[in-house]
UniProtKB/TrEMBL annotation:
One of its GO terms (biological process) is nucleotide-excision repair. Signal peptide: none annotated. Residues 11-32 are annotated as: Disordered. One of its GO terms (cellular component) is chromosome, telomeric region. This is Replication factor A protein 2. It comes from the Eukaryota. Residues 64-133 form the OB domain. Coiled coil: none annotated. Keywords: DNA replication, DNA-binding, Nucleus. It comes from Rhodotorula mucilaginosa (Yeast). Pfam families: RPA_C, tRNA_anti-codon. The gene is RFA2. One of its GO terms (molecular function) is single-stranded DNA binding. It is found in: Nucleus.
Length: 269
């Protein structure tokens, strides 16, 4: 079997790698970072459309790691299916067998034992699951607690910003339809040094959109592919059509530009 462990701790060390966790292995940073998640986060992850990228806390996720207890197990000649549970929910994890190892590999994973799984979120027949060929049994139960703490840390990082930094909740809690806008002139975020003053000439809705995108673009964990339009829509609230129309106007007026496709944008300045 392929064994791997550890997770991504946001704000890791320089050079694309951060310190290893008690689970072992190296943790990556950036768009393809290995993100520790709970099963509830997996179940509640959002997509713009079927087969599109998954988002958790407004950030795109690809590889994820879960630590959970095995509640049921089934096996075929090529695959082991585990029903796993971590106290926040249950989900199937489909694990590809290693043809070079002995039969009955599932005996390594008895029911009610803990396992770390690294894989990707998938949907088949309208049912979400984890697809992985990297997994191992938990032997040190401190790792179960560590994973829970790590999930909380990364969730807080994406929703409230790094320790000691500007609170990301000031960005993600803006509303499109007249709610409190911390990016309005003289608002709390502006007093904290936010970039809203740059966009004072824009209408309020466009100013909120630009400030959100500019703030997210400065995140060291944000890749060069840009901010997904769906993340902007979720952060603004209100009518999706109106938010997308404002984004289109900002692109036409030269405030935003499309990056890898028409669903990812970055500010021109």
């Amino acid at each position: 079997m392929s064994y791997a462990g550890g997770g991504f701790m946001a704000g890791g060390s320089q050079g694309g790698l951060s310190q290893s966790s008690p689970g072992g292995g190296e943790k990556r940073t950036g768009t393809n970072a290995l993100r520790p998640v709970t099963i509830a986060q997996v179940i509640n992850a959002t997509q713009s459309f079927a087969e599109s990228e998954f988002y958790i806390d407004g950030a795109e996720v690809k590889d994820v790691t879960v630590v959970a207890c095995i509640r049921n197990i089934a096996s075929t000649s090529t695959q082991i299916t585990l029903l796993i549970e971590d106290g926040t929910g249950q989900i199937d994890a489909r694990l590809w067998k290693n043809p070079n190892e002995e039969e009955n590999q599932e005996e390594d994973f008895p029911i009610n034992s803990y396992v770390r799984i690294i894989g990707q979120l998938k949907t088949f027949s309208n049912k979400r699951h984890l697809s992985s060929n990297r997994f191992r049994k938990i032997t040190d139960h401190n790792e179960v607690l560590f994973h829970a703490v790590e999930c909380i840390y990364v969730h807080k990082y994406y929703t409230q910003g790094p320790p000691g930094g500007a609170k990301m909740q000031d960005i993600t809690h803006t509303t499109y339809d007249g709610g409190a806008n911390p990016y309005a002139a003289g608002g709390a975020a502006a007093a904290a040094g936010a970039t809203s003053d740059v966009y004072n000439e824009l209408p309020p809705a466009q100013r909120s959109i630009m400030t959100f995108i500019a703030s997210r673009a400065k995140d060291p964990e944000q890749g060069e592919e840009g901010i997904h339009v769906e993340a902007v829509v979720r952060s603004m609230g209100g009518s999706e059509a109106k938010v997308r129309a404002e984004i289109a106007t900002l692109i036409e007026d030269g405030h935003l530009y499309e990056t890898i496709d028409d669903q990812h944008v970055l500010p021109t300045a």
